[in-house]
Structure formats: structure tokens, C-alpha cells
Amino acid sequence: MIVTLTANPSMDRTVSLDGALVRGSVHRASGSTTDPGGKGVNVARVISSAGKGCTAVLPGNGSDPLLAALGAIGVRYRAVPTLGAARINLTVSEPDGTTTKINEPGATVASDTVDGLFATILDLAAHAEWVVLSGSVPPGISAGWYGELVRAMANLECKVAVDTSDDPLTALAAGFPDTAPDLIKPNAEELAQLTGSDGDELERAAAAGDPSPTASAAAILVDRGAGAVLATLGAAGAVLVTADGAWSAIPPRITPRSTVGAGDSSLAGYILADLDGADGGGRLARAVAYGTAATALPGTQLPTPAHAREGDVTIRTLDQPIRA
């Protein structure tokens, strides 16, 4: 079983435009969709669509449209009672794949809901192969909360993945090695934030065919205790660094339609490959295949195994990274 935690879930509304978004102008939408969202929910949707057992843990109540939407698409969930409904996130999608996102902060979570989420994760983690802690934390949850969860699961057999940003990410890294998960999935900007690198330079080097700066930055986190670092680089692909080696991936050329859920799909692809016993290169290939497939799909649509073509992903084994 896979368990995902989404402390700040959402209903994700995507509005598609026929032309470019112009600030201050009136636009007519060519279409719109609304789906259950939040990073952990997205991971659960992808894993569930692949036929693997997955439970999404989130705050919610019986009248919340989010829970009804999860049930409608067959995603198993465990909702911890809370007040109010999930936030609404808006994405405006342009024909060239450019997306503009406006995310609400989420309602303040009461202390009993925080305690309930913590207890539910520990209960399910005892029987899980992977636990995924994803996304932002709403008001009422401290920035160091993910680190507390990682510590609490240290003696369990499950693997733990964390995908977050800003204060929760820096607080997690500040506690390494005690709070270091089995997998951390930063993008270039987040990796730079943790290692003192330049995120733009990491992306430029990777786009020019040199992923070694990204690998060297990721190796810093592995040296500090992270089991693996999956660094996503957008159209330039991704880099995976573990204590056993480093790999880079170049995705196939596609026509981008939406970046919504691409990083979450990459994380889900990595976990699916790990469940199948894939090596480092194989885990990275499937991660990039799923992320690329998500980018080629419209709106908030997420990939299934039929969309992910890992044979089209180019994998290269890198030299042992030079620690920055």
C-alpha cells in the first residue's frame, strides 16, 4: 500500500484560453475542468490509476466537494474531520502550455485536526511500502511538521518521500540527517535554495547538455542523509542521485499543454518503478516518462500507464558527482 498526505488539499479549477493571457483584458474560456487536487492527492490519483493500492490522507468533512470528487474517480481516502471545505486553486492555461496559477492559502487547521492527521499517517504507515508527504502546509501547521513526521516513522519499514517547498522544505533540511527522507524531490529552484546553488544556472547547464552541476548539488543532500534526490528540471529532464550512483534523463520532445501535476506525476512514476524493483536508471526513466506525459495532457488531467512511454526517455549514467 502507498499512503499520501495532503495537509492542504484543494479543488483545482483549470480554465483554458484560445490565445495568450493578457493582463487587464477580458478573455473567453474555451473550456474548463475541476478536479480534486493538492500534491499528495495528485500522486494518489496517478498511483491509483496504475492499479496500485493507495490511500490519500487529508483533512475533510462529509459535505466537502473534494471528498465526493475523490470517491467519484475511485481514489481511496482517509479524511480527518476539519472545519470548512478545501481551498480553490485556479489555473489559466494558454495554448502554448504556459500556465498561470493562483492558489488560495487554505483555511487554518485546528490542533485536533493536526493531531488526527499525524496519528492517521502513523497508523497507515505501519503497513505501507511508501508514505508520501506532499505540498504546502496550511495555517495552523508548523513549518517543521514534515520533519516531525519523518522522525516518527524512522523505525518503521516504510520508505518516506517528501515533496514540498519554501519554509517547510528549509525546515526539513535543517534537521538532516534526523529528518532526511528516503526520497526528496526538489525542482532546480528548491535544490538551489537548499544547497546555495543558482537555480537558473542549474537549468541552463542541464538544457545545454550538462547535468553535472545539478548532480553535484543533489549529492550534497545525499551526503547529509537523504536516501535519494530526484531533481526535476522541466523540459531539460531530471537528475537522480543516490549513494550508489547518479543518472540524468532527457525527455522526448512533446507539445506542452499544461504543467499542472507534472512534478507530482514524476514522483508517482518513481514510486511505481520502485515497487517494480527497478534500478536507479529505471526509476528515473519512469519518473520522467510520467512527468512528460502529464505536461502533454490538457488541464488537470493526469497520466495513466498508457500515457507514460519510458522507452522514449534517454538515460545516462553520470560519473560520481563532485560535491560542491
UniProtKB/TrEMBL annotation:
It holds the Pfam family PfkB. InterPro entries: Carboh/pur_kinase_PfkB_CS, PfkB_dom, Ribokinase-like, Tagatose/fructose_Pkinase. SUPFAM superfamilies: Ribokinase-like (SSF53613). One of its GO terms (molecular function) is phosphofructokinase activity. It comes from the Bacteria. The keyword Cytoplasm does not apply. Residues 21-305 form the Carbohydrate kinase PfkB domain. Keywords: ATP-binding, Kinase, Nucleotide-binding, Transferase. GO terms for cellular component: cytosol. CDD domains: FruK_PfkB_like (cd01164). The keyword Nucleotide-binding applies. Belongs to the carbohydrate kinase PfkB family. PANTHER family: 1-PHOSPHOFRUCTOKINASE, 1-PHOSPHOFRUCTOKINASE-RELATED. This is 1-phosphofructokinase.
